[in-house]
Design a protein that fits this description.
With 477 residues, the chain is α+β, with helices and mostly antiparallel strands. The protein folds into 3 domains: 50 residues, no CATH class; 299 residues, Zn peptidases (Aminopeptidase); 116 residues, 2-Layer Sandwich (Alpha-Beta Plaits). It has 13 helices and 18 strands. A hairpin with a 5-residue loop joins β4 and β5. α3 packs across α5, α5 packs across α12 and α7 runs antiparallel to α8. Bound molecules: zinc ion (2 copies). The site of one zinc ion (ZN) has 4 residues, from loops.
């Protein structure tokens, strides 16, 4: 609500700016106001100029890319069901001269543009949306509903910005196809399904992504968020996203009457002790300064207040960057869980199931170093920031695990004014997956296209050997 209010204020201010003398009298304050408004206008214009700096070329494709964004945003599809979305990309890419293969790992697409000898560079976009009800109030807000895999009626929204990634990729694809003299090698664009369920990348690989098609020398992707204002990109050297492990623990006790605890082994008490003991892993066992998270996201046990149940279940998400820390934390979870059950006299050892896992996304430092000045010259030095690693996860890591060096960068999505206001107030703008998540479309899309084109042209400028060598100079993955 506070954001809506601030919007109203801004509109009034703009109105005043266009009609400075419309008040009853032109006082000194009016002139001061006019001067400050003009300054604001100049600042805004210069910010716009910075955002639009690479725009000559970007403008030629912008309206089409924007139209695709609006179309895809209004017609989102859930993970694993992105058939129409993939079809929209496939037909457009085919019309541009790309060799397009559909249905790779489900609804995935692969589009190749061969342009003489040179490296192969892959650029990925995701295709999927989320079961979220859009509340942005935007004129092009999604009203879509569908059935999820469990048959429930759910709303659908591009609440993670994958629509922006698709529109950027299409704008980039168009520029690259129209300017083949500015690069050489093979450009490989992929539309990956089911990123949100961490299954799509693996399915594409299992369906021959790197055997039926050329294996890239470098893989590139971007992700938008409100971490940065639109117009900027963020580069992380080294870890960008975390290892994510899902663990389900079933604690077996011995049920009975709530009034006769001495005849039971209470699994709820064991679960409570276990949850607290698990918190000592990051605070007492992992070396200070190393990153790790152990979150117990759910506890399920019992049906009635006077019944001690037979068992309790815990659901955990475990995050880390380094492989050795991941191993240490998972081992500690297992050790503590078993020991707590034993301490309570449980007859049966807890069941510990490790049912989902994704590796960290690690950016080759050599690539980050090589591409920083490239992005600075394309977007302006002030528009290239350092991105902090975050504990989120991404299945782009599956491509990296195949031995493909990665450059995964952040794309600013926040409206610059709202971003500044939020910073000043110590508040956070809605994060990805929020029903209010809405990138500041025009500057973010312009920047996404300009950044991708600059990165691809740089990577597709020398020989495959040179790129492979430069991408692995400092590899420590
Ligand atoms: Zn997401
Ligand atoms: Zn996402």
């Amino acid at each position: 609500m506070s954001r809506e209010q601030s919007n109203c204020v801004r509109i009034e201010e703009i109105h005043k700016l266009t009609a400075p003398g419309s008040g009853p009298q032109k006082s000194q304050n009016d002139w001061a106001y006019l001067a400050s408004s003009l300054l604001l206008a100049i600042l805004t214009a210069s910010m716009w100029a910075q955002v639009a700096a690479p725009s000559g070329e970007v403008e030629t494709v912008f309206s089409q890319a924007r139209a695709l964004y609006v179309d895809v945003h209004q017609n989102p599809e859930l993970s694993g069901h992105e058939m129409q979305t993939a079809g929209k990309l496939a037909s457009r890419l085919r019309a541009l001269g790309y060799e397009v293969t559909e249905h790779v790992g489900g609804s995935g697409i692969v589009a190749l543009l061969k342009n003489g000898p040179g490296p192969t560079v892959m650029l990925r976009t995701e295709l999927d949306a989320l079961p979220v009800e859009e509340k942005t109030g935007l004129p092009y807000a999604s009203k879509m509903r569908t059935k999820d895999d469990a048959g429930r009626d759910v709303p659908v929204m591009h609440a993670c910005g994958h629509d922006l990634h698709m529109a950027s990729l299409m704008g980039t694809a168009t520029i690259m196809a129209n300017t083949k003299s500015a690069w050489h090698g093979t450009l490989m664009l992929i539309g990956q399904p089911a990123e949100e369920t961490i299954t799509g990348a693996k399915k594409m690989i299992d369906d021959g992504l790197f055997t039926r098609f050329p294996k890239p020398d470098v893989a590139v992707a971007l992700h938008t968020s409100n971490e940065l204002p639109a117009g900027k990109v963020g580069i992380a050297s080294g870890y960008r996203y975390a290892n994510a492990d899902s663990v389900r623990i079933t604690i077996y006790g011995k049920g009975g009457h709530g009034s006769a605890p001495h005849t039971t082994v209470d699994p709820i008490v064991i679960a409570a002790r276990t949850i607290l003991a698990l918190q000592t892993i990051t605070s007492r066992e992992v070396k200070p300064g190393e990153a790790a998270v152990v979150t117990v996201g759910y506890v399920q046990a019992g049906t009635k207040n006077n019944i001690i149940p037979d068992q309790a279940e815990l659901g955990l998400t475990v995050r880390s960057y380094k492989p050795e820390i991941r191993k240490q934390v998972l081992a500690a979870i297992s050790r503590i869980t078993k020991a707590e059950a034993q301490a309570a006299g449980a007859q049966r050892e807890p069941l510990i199931e490790h049912y989902e896992a994704t590796d960290a996304v690690y950016n080759e430092p050599a690539l980050a170093q090589r591409l920083k000045p490239v992005l600075e010259s394309a977007l302006g030095k002030d528009n290239v920031a350092v991105a902090e690693p975050i504990m989120g996860s991404e299945d782009f890591s599956y491509f990296i695990a195949q031995g493909v060096p990665s450059f995964f960068f952040g794309l600013g999505g926040a409206n610059p004014q709202k971003y500044a206001q939020a910073k000043a107030a110590g508040e956070n703008l809605p994060s990805n997956h929020s029903s209010l998540f809405a990138p500041d479309l025009d500057p973010a899309l312009r920047t996404g296209i300009a950044a991708e084109v600059a990165v691809l042209r740089n990577l597709l400028s020398g020989s495959a050997e040179e790129l492979r060598k430069s991408a692995q100079q400092q590899s420590s993955y």
